[in-house]
Automatic annotation (TrEMBL):
Protein name (record): Amino acid/amide ABC transporter ATP-binding protein 1, HAAT family
Keywords: ATP-binding, Nucleotide-binding, Transport
Highest taxon of the lineage: Bacteria
ABC transporter domain location: 6-247
Alphabetized GO MF terms: ATP binding; ATP hydrolysis activity
Example of a GO cellular component annotation carried by this entry: plasma membrane
Transmembrane residue ranges: none
Length: 249
């Protein structure tokens, strides 16, 4: 393989007669944002689930940091540094921003609160959590409840939680969903800088964000890749225009 951080080779998954992903081979290289786009039902979520370990492929394999992780479960891939941020936020909204990051640093999201008290007195853990908040620009919001944050700040907090686990790659499922124009613009600027931390595989419907951020774009239609290329190559591709972008490109 190349110097790719993450790669899929011929990933396929059928549901009955429907081939939701069909021999999908993509890679994610150091420092890049690689966007996956395609119409509803194209297979993006199925592909992400296969990459992150939530769904076993019928055929093909997934490599992460040079290792074949196809048989690994979600938790094992996460521990190895594959950080997924979710379209539906998994944050505890009535707890503080710092508490959420501490829980992430403990790898104990959703665990009973009895684990939190010792965590708060653990200096190393607290330092790591505060450093993660600083890296996403939320250091001044540490004591706020998550419910007091804007949607965009919550996305940044999710990234802070992921950062405590020293990610080697991010997989993001529609981070712009639910954000207004201003929130999208702010998150776009944030993700632009985040790629230096770890490369990002980005599933996103917001084409302004995709065209602003992506180093490469892969277009999925009916489970198959119809094109992978730079923003300019994708915009100029007759196949992509016919199948997906229509007159919008
Ligand atoms: N668990 C499942 N059982 C049966 N069919 C499924 C299942 N999951 C997905 N599919 C089907 O597989 C196809 C691909 O779905 P998928 O959710 O991966 O597409 P998508 O590109 O993520 O769509 P969207 O942009 O709407 O999120 C769709 O036709 C969907 O109905």
């Amino acid at each position: 393989m190349t110097d790719a951080v993450l790669a899929t080779h011929g990933l396929s998954r059928s549901f009955g007669a429907l081939r939701a992903t069909n021999e999908v081979s993509i890679d994610l290289r150091p420092g890049e944002i690689h966007a996956i786009i395609g119409p509803n039902g194209a297979g993006k979520s199925t592909l992400i689930a296969q990459i992150c370990g939530g769904l076993a492929p019928d055929a093909g394999r997934v490599e992460f940091l040079g290792r074949d992780v196809t048989g690994w479960d979600v938790a094992a891939r996460a521990r190895a540094g594959l950080a997924r941020t979710f379209q539906v936020s998994a944050l505890a909204t009535e707890d503080s921003v710092l508490q959420n990051v501490l829980l992430g640093a403990l790898g104990a999201g959703g665990s009973p609160w009895r684990f939190l008290r010792p965590a708060l007195s653990d200096r190393d853990l607290r330092d790591r959590a505060e450093a993660a908040l600083t890296r996403v620009g939320l250091q001044d919001q540490a004591a706020l409840r998550v419910s007091e944050l804007s949607h965009g700040q919550r996305r940044q907090l999710e990234v802070a939680v992921a950062l405590t686990l020293s990610p080697r790659a991010f997989v993001m499922d529609e981070p712009m969903a639910g954000l207004g124009a201003e929130g999208s613009a702010q998150l776009t600027a944030f993700l632009d800088g985040l790629r230096a931390e770890a490369p990002i595989l980005l599933v996103e419907h917001d084409m302004d964000a995709v065209f602003a951020l992506a180093d490469r774009i892969t277009v999925l239609v009916y489970g198959r890749i119809i094109e992978t290329g730079t923003v300019d190559e994708i915009r100029a591709s007759p196949a992509v225009r016919d199948a997906y972008l229509g007159g919008a490109a």
